[in-house]
Amino acid sequence: MTDLRSLPSVDRLLQTSLAVEMIAQYGRPLTVDAIRGELELARARFSQGESLPDEGELLRRIQQQLENWTTPTLFPVINATGVILHTNLGRAPLSRAAIQAVQEAALGYSNLEFDVAKGQRGSRLIHAEALLRRLTGAEAALVVNNNAAAVLLTLTALARRKSVVIARSQLVEIGGGFRVPDVMKQSGAKLIEVGATNRVHLADYEQALEEPSVALVLRAHRSNFRIIGFTSEPTLAEMATVAHRAGLPLVDDLGSGTLLDTARYGMAHEPTLQESLAAGADLVCFSGDKLLGGPQAGIIVGKADLVAKLRKHPLARAIRADKLCLAALTATLLHYLKDEAEREIPIWRMISTPIETIRARAESWREAIGFGEVVASQSTVGGGSLPGETLPTFVLSLAVPHPTRFMARLRVARPPVIACLENDRILLDPRTVAVEDERMVIESLKREFRE
Length: 451
Ligand SMILES: *Cc1c(COP(=O)(O)O)cnc(C)c1O
Prior knowledge:
By secondary structure, the protein is an alpha/beta fold. It has helices spanning 10-14, 17-26, 28-47, 55-70, 96-107, 126-136, 147-159, 180-187, 202-208, 236-245, 273-279, 304-312, 314-318, 323-337, 341-344, 346-352, 355-369, 403-412, 438-450, and strands spanning 78-79, 114-115, 120-121, 140-144, 163-167, 173-174, 178-179, 190-194, 214-220, 250-255, 283-287, 298-302, 373-380, 390-398, 417-418, 420-422, 425-428. Strand 9 (214-220), helix 10 (236-245) and strand 10 form a beta-alpha-beta unit.
């Protein structure tokens, strides 16, 4: 076509049966927008010397534009990396019961802040608190949006315009821009660093606590790195004794905060919540979606009077947990209470899967696609817990001519499969792939091999 007048009008396009279908699917205003946009584009390209598209081609482009506009940018992916708590891939997947609880809370109304027995306003905080108290032995608990917020609230409510004592080796940076010194600044608390990078002694704390502006002692877990060699650090119990002697609280930012003992699964021992509290920490902050295996949340457990102060602070309102989070968290905590965490919570199921089961799954993938080899490898926990710790695993290893390109094609498939590249081999770890998703991984691989 060589004449702009031959380009169909908006009205003419709207009357085509394809456009009628588009309106049914995407609504009229968006469809009209897409039509106008594509017509404009065609005119602009025509003025640059391109030829005009025919009606069929125009409609195809309009359809494509509508799809682009309405496809969600957040979608499920299959994690075949073997990194169990992959922050970029959304950390902990939820248990069936947690998903069910979210669905029920989302579908209609709930007693989120309503006391049904008394027929009056209640508190959203009660929903997880009793469970957290029972599981950890703490006097009180508070749930907020994430652990970064939990630490910020704690420091703001307890140490604003005062000082916080922390070991130099604990001024950690977790992924995603969480830095203890920056959070401290934001809270309005002044930082008093003690010790050397590798060593801190009880006497360093004792000396710092003589400063009258000190409001609390903070311990931050080195979640994502280790220091080794000539190092030393007082135990949490020793720190608690010194803090309490000065009449000050000890706050422990545990980061991952596990209820189960990771050493039972052949890994290093990640400090548990129960141990922190037993050692004398007055408040313990941790994430809901790390080793707890629940939704994104920041959880604070500890002394009732301190938790009460945090609750009353205006910041608590700004960072409160929503009903979907509370529903998922409560369901997750119930798994621990019923001693079924290992079976029901996906990350613990992954951690505790026997190596022979993983080898058998990798073998079955290899047989199904008729390619590759099954080799011993390592899964990692990730997500700011157990740095350097790995779990022995078996992976399907694929040697293909263009591995980077192959990986890219796996990533853009639907659903995307995320694998690892090591020494030019593509590695797929069954540990982090749900059994229900196996078929899709195999289909995806087969498709790539056919092409
Ligand atoms: C992960 C982590 C945080 C941040 O927790 P989020 O839930 O990601 O906000 C804070 N402190 C420590 C020690 C951590 O490991």
